Amino acid sequence: MKIFSESHKTVFVVDHCPYMAESCRQHVEFDMLVKNRTQGIIPLAPISKSLWTCSVESSMEYCRIMYDIFPFKKLVNFIVSDSGAHVLNSWTQEDQNLQELMAALAAVGPPNPRADPECCSILHGLVAAVEALCKITEYQHEARTVLMENAERVGNRGRIICITNAKSDSHVRMLEDCVQETIHEHNKLAANSDHLMQIQKCELVLIHTYPVGEDSLVSDRPKKELSPVLTSEVHSVRAGRHLATKLNVLVQQHFDLASTTITNIPMKEEQHANTSANYDVELLHHKEAHVDFLKSGDNHIGGNSREGAFKETVTLKWCTPRTNSVELHYCTGAYRISPVDVNSRPSSCLTNFLLNEPRYKMDGSLEIPLERAKDQLEKHTRYWPMIISQTTIFNMQAVVPLASVIVKEAMTDEDVLNCQKTIYNLVDMERKNDPLPISTVGTRGKGPKRDEQYRIMWNELETLVRAHISNSEKHQRVLECLVACRSKPPEEEERKKRGRKREEKEDKLEKSGKDYEPDKPWQESERLKSLLDREKEDLAEAEVIKDSPDSPEPPNKKPLIAMDEMPTVEKAKGPMSLLSLWSNRINTANSRKHQEFIGRLNSVNNKAELYQHLKEENGMETTDNGKAGRQ
Amino acid sequence: MPTVVVMDVSLSMTRPVSVEGSEEYQRKHLAVHGLTMLFEHMATNYKLEFTALVVFSSLWELMVPFTRDYNTLQEALSNMDDYDKTCLESALLGVCNIVQQEWGAAIPCQVVLVTDGCLGIGRGSLRHSLATHNQRSESSRFPLPFPFPSKLYVMCMANLEELQSTDSLDCLERLIDLNNGEGQIFTIDGPLCLKNVQSMFGKLIDVAYTPFHAVLKCGHLTSDVQVFPRPEPFVIDEEIDPIPKAINTDLEIVGFVDIADISSPPVLSRHLVLPIALNREGDEVGPGITDDTEDENSANQIAGKIPNFCVLLHGSLKVEGMVAVVQLGPEWYGMLYSQADSKKKSNLMMSLFEPGPEPLPWLGKMAQLGPISDAKENPYGEDDNKSPFPLQPKNKRSYAQNVTVWIKPSGLQTDVQKILRNARKLPEKTQTFYKELNRLRKAALAFGFLDLLKGVADMLERECTLLPDTAHPDAAFQLTHAAQQLKVASTGASEYAAYDHNIAPLQTDFSGSSTERL
């Protein structure tokens, strides 16, 4: 439940009453003597900030650090109080940045010292702060929506940081009582409202600030529980840098921050660009970043930071990174940082060094891009040979134009044209008998012959294209082109192909039929007609080739222990190898030199039945003769 | 994740167990039997993991330092002598030292404590340790919680009734509590016998040592893998309902990113991704069956000859210098990458990012990452010379936006001097002069620091009087104009003190050259 802790909502209430216009009585020299000045000029008198200026710049610094380290989910509502409450921003994430707050503060301007102090009070602001805490933030809203009926489990806690000039301890008590009462009242209101939330816990941080050199009329008081809902603490702080230091300490406490000082960073000197000196930069970040350091026992705690006695800082020595962007390093944590002294030269040198890479913005689209990425991976891997020797086409530069576009979800006409060109180019290569990068790994000799190579290549290409024909009608067109152009395989191959093709066509017809069926029953007759047409066509085809694919080849009755068949000249289809030509010749020559065996003469398909006489003697089936013999 | 087995060898472990049959067993023997089973399981499924063996009584001894050689561990089990009394605290302290020396404080480690539930007497007994727990100084801190991420499993060579008859169980439970609840106590169900010890160790194996098998997918390409060490469920404590999240057994690759773009991101844990030949029927490898290893080896040999997607992926990531982004669950991602072990050897590894839609702010929301081909123009440029990452945050951080902070006088002085320096170089520096002037004006208005505006106006007027004769005539005009504009703003009157208003350079007859630049 960390997200809705007290630090989810912080309300600043800054006093804007006339006395805040008083000087903090800490002087700032702003007219510093610069070199090469004409001598004898008296610098302008130093100026001093008002209590208001000190309060505002300290609270802005608090917000700056908080926004740097928690850009989301930690929200600030800024209120100034005089004769009424002025709420400068809202809880929405868009309102959470320094520019907005600065612009709003400029619009308010400094307090008017001539206003009637009787009408002005910090109380207006405190009441508005309680109201603000009851208002739901977008994160709380979101969490409640997700939890539905368990919505009440979303917490509503917050913190009020009030910077004012109080008159006395009893005045402070009066302010506390007021906050407590207001919470009580507003919780009653919120109980009956959908868009307000009851405050479960409120931390009031009252900061009494007064000009340097004056005695404080208010005493410090540590955190104390005023009611189960409200705790309160009082800080009495001199204005000027003391106030800024106090708020810096508070932001670290409130947001669990810790400090790290990077030491010995070499930087070019401003005045002498060719010399360099080492500087230290102190950074704030979430204290979790130090957990592993402290656990390892090797604590680099290097004493107190320069600013105040409060905090300890871990010192790390700068190490100029060797930029090798192709290396992944083991990293257990990354934390947002904020420089303590943001616009000091060493700080800005460091941050500029780290930020100097160019940055871009991405535009989002309506579809979830990651889903599109998954979809693309699916398409690209439909046909993906795992090893190089398993593929021919992906080893061929000539196939690239087709292979790179066929995996696309949608192709342009130009893409189709390129695919067709690729196919024509391959046809051309085949005509010219160009060699193909067929792997010969694992095969003996030179591997398959050229026309076989092309057959393998065309088959593979067809597999690739077929894997994508469902993408679009244009993909279909590429397949049609491929089928029409590819080299005609040997007859047998052709027959099989035809069979397959027909099956597919029917499949397709069926598919298209199915697509139409629900809404257009008349399509059915159309489909039947086309099926009949198809049948006729096939009949004609069957007449031509004699061997219709519908009647399957006779099953191979060859026994498993078949003896080597002698390839005969008539049987061999297609071109013959030198070896077979030679062995045929030798075999014919040899056969003339001896009398042919009776068995071979009587053989059917070069196979002779043995022990035929047994069959005659027993009058039994040959297959049973073993058993019969024993009987 | 490494394991330390911490074995109690105090005298009480030699108490005899009445087992049916003649042979006499001691509790120690039961423990050895259970550990043998655990080591055999690990030798089969956790080959790469390191295990150490510590024995303890009033002293402790590292019998076997961290090793992958389970035979050595097994042998050590049979070479244990019997010693005096149980003194758990010093043993646990020993474990702390051993683990930290070998692995540091960041590597999670499992500690298997084998004891009979007699927790010692007097000083050094667990009872004594717990009683004095609150009076410790930092130097004599109790070793729990372990300084490294850990699980403490207590294997009791005793049944529940026996432990409950004394306060042993309470003490052991407190031990687990002290380890922040990380761990579990196992006791023997029923009478003390080999079979029941086996089933107790079987439970430990189920809880802590089941291998994590998953299917790695990339479109149509898949591979069965073992993810090692097993990814543990993760709890996001930012959530309202912090329930542990476990990763999917289907690991789907959603895309690829350059290493330079993902740039060493923070990860929760790292794991080896090992392709495996899943023996579908043989999945249930029973305890103590060692003959299976031979079959498995041959299965692995066959698998080694079949092209595997893991090999393709690892090789490709290595060559391309990229990582694969993998989806581990709803709004949970990780990355797969090639990690060099040595100069010659590298492995496919998977790291888990913190769960959430945007684990790496510089990549933006993971769901918003898409294929390059979807972009109107290639975000990496035609010749791969740029990158869309890191993404610019919607609101720049303070250190990237030139904020004005005047808390220290030096901050204010630097800003004033910048104006002054540029004022002396007018009209060449007209643009920068007004830029700095407007920055100061804005901050002064926001902070209600109107005296500063007056002061700077006075200063500019003085500079005007100090201009040398050689100065460009435009300089005087610009200084006077700027001073006058600051003066009116310092009145706070709304028409001059608008925050968004910028003081523009004065258009003069001489300013032709400078206006060109504007």
TrEMBL record, chain A:
Family, as annotated: Belongs to the Integrator subunit 13 family.
Sequence segments annotated as region (Disordered): 488-525, 540-559
Species of the source: Nothoprocta perdicaria (Chilean tinamou)
GO cellular component, one term: cytoplasm
Pfam families: Mat89Bb (PF10221)
GO biological process: one example: cell division
Keywords per UniProt: Cell cycle, Cell division, Cytoplasm, Mitosis, Nucleus
Subcellular location: Cytoplasm; Nucleus
Record protein name field: Integrator complex subunit 13
Start-end of Basic and acidic residues biased regions: 540-549
InterPro entries named among the record's database cross-references: Cell_cycle_regulator_Mat89Bb
Highest taxon listed in the record's lineage: Eukaryota
TrEMBL record, chain B:
Coiled-coil region list: none
A Gene Ontology term for the protein's cellular component: integrator complex
GO biological process: snRNA 3'-end processing
Domain Integrator complex subunit 14 C-terminal: 404-511
Main location: nucleus
Domain Integrator complex subunit 14 beta-barrel span(s) in chain numbering: 209-356
Protein location: Nucleus
Record-annotated VWFA domain positions: 3-117
Assembly information from the UniProt record: Component of the Integrator complex, composed of core subunits INTS1, INTS2, INTS3, INTS4, INTS5, INTS6, INTS7, INTS8, INTS9/RC74, INTS10, INTS11/CPSF3L, INTS12, INTS13, INTS14 and INTS15. The core complex associates with protein phosphatase 2A subunits PPP2CA and PPP2R1A, to form the Integrator-PP2A (INTAC) complex. INTS14 is part of the tail subcomplex, composed of INTS10, INTS13, INTS14 and INTS15.
Matches recorded under PANTHER family: INTEGRATOR COMPLEX SUBUNIT 14 (PTHR13532:SF3), PTHR13532
Family membership noted in the UniProt record: Belongs to the Integrator subunit 14 family.
Name used for this protein in its record: Integrator complex subunit 14
Organism, scientific name: Nothoprocta perdicaria
